[in-house]
Amino acid sequence: MVIEGTALGSVLAGVILAVLVGVAMWLLYLGLRAQRGAAAAIAANARLEALIASAPALAMVVRTDGRLELADRLADWFGLSPAPRYLADLAGGTTGLTAEDAAGLAEDVAAAQKAGRPFARAVHAQGSQRSLMIHGARAPRDLQAPGGVVLWVFDATGSQAEIARLADEGAAAHAAFDALTGLIEAAPLPMWYRGADMRLAMVNSAYVAAVEGVDAEDVVRRGVELIEGSGVGGPLASAVLARDTDLPQMQAMPATIRGARRMLRVHDVPLPGGGVAGFAVDIEELEQARSGIKRFGDAQRAMLDRLSAGVVQFAADRTLIFSNQPFQRLFAMKSEWLSDRPEFDRVLERMREANRLPEVRDFPGWKAERRDWFFATGGAIEENWHLPGGVHLRVVAQPLPDGGLLLIFEDRTEQVQLASARDTLLRVRTATFDNLFEALGVFAADGRLQIWNNKFRALWGFDEEFLATHPRVDALSEAAATRLSNPSRARLIGDLVRAATVERQQRGGRVAFADGRHFEFAAVPLPDGNGLFTMLDISDSRRIERALRDRNEALEAADQVKTAFVANMSYELRTPLTSISGFAEMLSEGYAGKLSKAADSYVDAILESVGRLGMLVDEVLDLTQNEGKTPPLEFLDVDLERVAHIAADAARTAAKKKQQDFAVEIQPSTGSIKGDAERLRQVIDHLLKHAVTGTPERGRILLHTDGTAKAARIVVSDDGGGMDAAAVARAFDRFAPGAGAPGSDFGLGLPLAKQFVEAHGGTIQLVSEPGEGTLITVELPRR
């Protein structure tokens, strides 16, 4: 039992020992682990202390009672020594925080303690001249400061300076941006900005107005483009090219602005951020001006080609840029050579080769002088070139504002020749004037005597010194009055000159000189505005005129005596004709007994001759009584148809005796007229008697009448022997031999008919040819 007890104790002791060893080993392990943990904690604490020491921010804890836990370094930041114990101690008067900052910080800490709201406040340390940034939050539990607040204090002195500098720069940039924005907004040009995605981000008011948008936001939101189209060459393509190449782009594109088609020059400028700024300049007026200038230049050159003068233009580098066709012809230059734009010197040399320059001894010096024309400042330069062959050129050199030169070559050969011919003509005219029989004087528009000949001076007896003063016409008239038989007639000179120079009318007159001579004056307007005054001596013609007038008066008196004699003889013939007619009729009626057949034929012949003689006497009386004047007429309504029938009936007997075919055509349109019925019947009688007498036996005679609303017409025609031209010319002449016809059998019928027709205001025409008969037409107006 003891052995068993001993063994059990040994085992129990071994177990206890083993347990104690195990516990010791465990304790040793825990100690070693704690030692390692303490060492790690110490190292970590050291690292944290070092990190905190080098950190830009320092921490302090504000407990609920206001006590502070902070490092000395942080107190130094506040400019306080020793370190403050309470929050209120941070305001130290001349050190620490300002009272305003301290009060604000206390309010923030109280708010954080109560509501747990974090805060941030910038304060200024007076003692250290530091700018501090304090961030505060409720203290975590691990700090074992229940209700406290942890304040992290950052030294923001450098940051605040940078912030202030950046604030100033920001303010300046903001002001510049505002100014730039105002400038862009006020700019009359459409301006815009595109983001990197090429979408519109900003537009100005001019852009909005151009696209007729509501406002800038509306235009940007809808992405309204100023230029239509987005394909190759469109506005987006130009902007993309500017963005991708980082180079400004410019192109001209058409656009519709306020309903009008305009040409815009669009500029796209790349910006550093990937966006593109753009603006558009309206160049429509510029394009129109350019087009107008081009058209003007083309028209000017076309006009210069049509000029007779040669024109050539040189640029500032003295190369030829234009020459017209007359220049090429004048100087024998080919257009192919001129198209190479030769220089001024080469052109002069080519002119010399063509023998189109004046002959000079020092050609290089002469050429250098002409080269100076490019720099002339006194305006146009003019020269006259005398070329071989008698050619005269007028050369005008006009320096141009751009440094070029314009040359004009005018061929004045013909003008020089004309001037020479003009001088010759003037000398010939002067010699002619001085030797003319007429007296001539040329007066200007102001009435002054300009030119006169020797005849003019000698005729009026003027002194050469007086005429050399070119006196006015009034003074000249006054000086000439003493030479006239009636001095008041001198005014005629002034009247005639004024009519020619002012009224531009030709007038004339006659005056008598005191010495008995007579002159005819005339004033003729000249093309140059002057007036030509002429004087012609008509003394001889006046004497001849007076002699002719006396002779005419004597002839008229003799004609009156002849007319009176014929009239008296006609009246005297009526008495024996009446007696012869009466006795012949008594014999024919058998009052003296029955006559033989031969005696009857003799009596009939007597009666026929008496009738013819009586008719001639009546006609002579009609002609002599009127003496070419309109015979007295009694104008009444006359039925012309009835008058024509009566005349036709009277002529039918004579036509029947000659077995003539007498046709009468009285148309209803003949109607009636105002006139003298007896005279109208005599007109038809005379015409029919003329036809019957001039038509042989078995001939044909026609009486035709008709009319219109304005006139009545009478036509008498026959197929007799007709009349030659001489007989037709004197058919109506009452004093022609055998008046009215080539034979003496026609009497005075046609002159009387003409007289009566014209007295009614009508016309009579006779048409006849030998062997073709005669046609007489009378037209009488309806009054």
UniProtKB/TrEMBL annotation:
Keywords: Kinase, Membrane, Phosphoprotein, Transferase, Transmembrane, Transmembrane helix, Two-component regulatory system. PROSITE patterns: HIS_KIN. The chain crosses the membrane at residues 6-29. Residues 568-783 form the Histidine kinase domain. GO terms for molecular function: phosphorelay sensor kinase activity. It catalyses: ATP + protein L-histidine = ADP + protein N-phospho-L-histidine. This is histidine kinase. It comes from Sphingomonas aliaeris. The lineage of its organism: Bacteria, Pseudomonadati, Pseudomonadota, Alphaproteobacteria, Sphingomonadales.
